[in-house]
Amino acid sequence: MLFELRLLAYRFLKIFQWPTSRVVPIPRPTTFVGPDAALELCETIAQFGLKRVLIVSDAVLVKLGVVEPMRAALVARGVEVAVHDGITPDPTYDVLQRGFEAATAHRADSILAVGGGSVIDAAKVIDAMVVSGKGVQKLIGMLKVRKPMLPLFAIPTTAGTGSEVTVAAVATDPVKHVKNVVIDPKLVPAAAALDPEVTRGMPPHITAATGMDALTHAVESYTNRWPHAETAFHAVAAVRMIFANLPRACADGGDLKAREAMLLASFYAGLSFTKAYVGYVHAFSHKVGGMYGVPHGLGNAILLPYVLDFLKDAPLAEQRLAELAVAIGAGNAGEPRAALAQRFVDRVRELNRLVGIPEKLQQLKQTDIPEVARAAMIEAHRDYPVPKNMSYAQAQALLRGCLA
Length: 404
Ligand SMILES: NC(=O)c1ccc[n+]([C@@H]2O[C@H](COP(=O)([O-])OP(=O)(O)OC[C@H]3O[C@@H](n4cnc5c(N)ncnc54)[C@H](O)[C@@H]3O)[C@@H](O)[C@H]2O)c1
Ligand SMILES: [Fe+2]
Fold this sequence. Notes:
Structural class: alpha/beta
Largest sheet: 6 strands, parallel
Oligomer: single chain
Helix content: 55-70%
Bound molecules: nicotinamide-adenine-dinucleotide, fe (ii) ion
Order of helices and strands: HHEHEHHEHEHHEEEEEHHHHHHHHH
Strand content: 5-15%
Number of helices: 17
């Protein structure tokens, strides 16, 4: 009962978040798209006159040879480059601190992130640490950066998080096993390259999970209560592209058309949620990611249909899910809304099956359900304009449904 009152207080306080979400301008990165876009971006970085670039990446990508062409392209144009490959999935405070030390040691005048959401988020935080002189913990929360960032560039190697276009960066507290978020419009990179070549080697299970993360961004932002003027276009375009291209990208990693469409979909879903926010799926997924290390996209993919089952009878969510069903060709606008909304949820389950996402959260333990539900309800009711209120009891019931 006391906890429900706390959630009510969060919902009340959120009213004051609404004006901020309208008036704070969010920049957009200059974007290069297509095969060779990554090299074009490197050429442009050199033309900007930047001299000391720190490439932030991870050991897997360096070993796969994904980073080398960008390093070589910069060096060939007279740029001094250092490569920091120390980022691990869901970077923790100490990982970010080592990245900060690498940037300082190189006296970097700019940062180029080559990697998935973990790498791009890490580059954002490292950059903010360099310019603000603050440690990670002091940057967590909203609008804490205050100083102009070093020019930041991003080449996403997964098509999922949309981090190349968002105001957010996730940093994991390794002691409390909690994922915290740094939010500031200054984190949006100056430029990004959506280059299908760099996602070519992504294995099917990572392609599937990260692609479902992008779908979750689009669906959660589109069903939320505070859409922006552009949300409908960005979210619906992303959903259409994901349904049409994710199975192809998973079945044939070399299908560069599908890969490019997934990068664009992820970018558009990022544009959508950076203004209209995410919802319960992310709130649950952040907690199971922090607790058990469940990859972000995988957690979202599994949870998405369960959350949609809960939301689908709320008038706003029903309307939007029905529109999405029509957009993906699963029905026509004249049909009853409830039937269309249900069909969209069924299609999400079907897409999960098609790309090999399991139905249940294997890592979730029955005894942890109260803690997961509690953390998720605080995050959702405090931060996201969700279309229907979920009680603590309903959150626990939903999680019981996800038990393997
Ligand atoms: N900033 C945001 O707006 C935002 C949004 C959603 C998620 N996130 C965060 O992003 C992180 C997840 O990022 P992600 O889903 O992109 O995964 P990731 O960056 O954690 O990468 C997952 C794995 O895929 C590998 N990988 C990446 N690209 C590859 C490629 N082309 N070929 C082969 N292997 C490749 C990586 O080496 C890594 O082992 C989470 O921490 C999540 O919380 C941030
Ligand atoms: Fe996400």
